[in-house]
Amino acid sequence: MEELINYILQFGNLNRQQTDFILSKAKTLELHKEEYFSEAGKVPRHVGFLTEGVVRFCYYNNKGEEITHHFIDENNFVSDQQKFEAQMVASEYIQAVTHCKLLVFSKKDWDQIGNTIVGWGAIENLILKNCLLKTIERRSPLVSEDATTRYLSFIEQFPGLVNRIPLSHIASYLGITQQSLSRIRRNIR
């Protein structure tokens, strides 16, 4: 729980009473590998802070192919925030790639935090902005680079993930086939 508070304090000042209040609203959730934190076709029920493990955001394209478009690892928030806030049906999946432990907040508890802590909205906006910027930073280079460079960029951005997640998910994230990824990995060794 200390990781959550340290993360939040990067974006604003809170006193002990406020951090204790936040922690009082957090519940622990464990997900086994391949379980869903949020599913397409359902309203997201939680905002989570990942304390252990890796999740991926994925969807199915019009050909029925599974596309991974984002990974999140430890000490980061996990949420389909727009759909969660509006309590609308999600259009993508958030799936555990490894065994995961999260601190989660229900919509009711998340709203109570916002209604109780003065300045929470500003902190929440900075957290969301940070998450969005990280996503853009990681995705933008993938558009214009060749497959080998994309893989090397992936290794640089996610150094601890390469050996923790299936190659099929990495290949999907990079927009290449698993066979191409295997070839690239052989060539760079």
Automatic annotation (TrEMBL):
Organism: Dyadobacter psychrophilus
InterPro entries: cNMP-bd_dom, cNMP-bd_dom_sf, RmlC-like_jellyroll
Lineage start: Bacteria, Pseudomonadati, Bacteroidota, Cytophagia, Cytophagales
Name of this chain's protein: cAMP-binding domain of CRP or a regulatory subunit of cAMP-dependent protein kinases
Transmembrane annotation, as ranges: none
Residues annotated as domain Cyclic nucleotide-binding: 30-113
Source taxon at top rank: Bacteria
Entries under Pfam families matching the protein: cNMP_binding (PF00027)
GO molecular function: kinase activity
Keywords: Kinase, Transferase
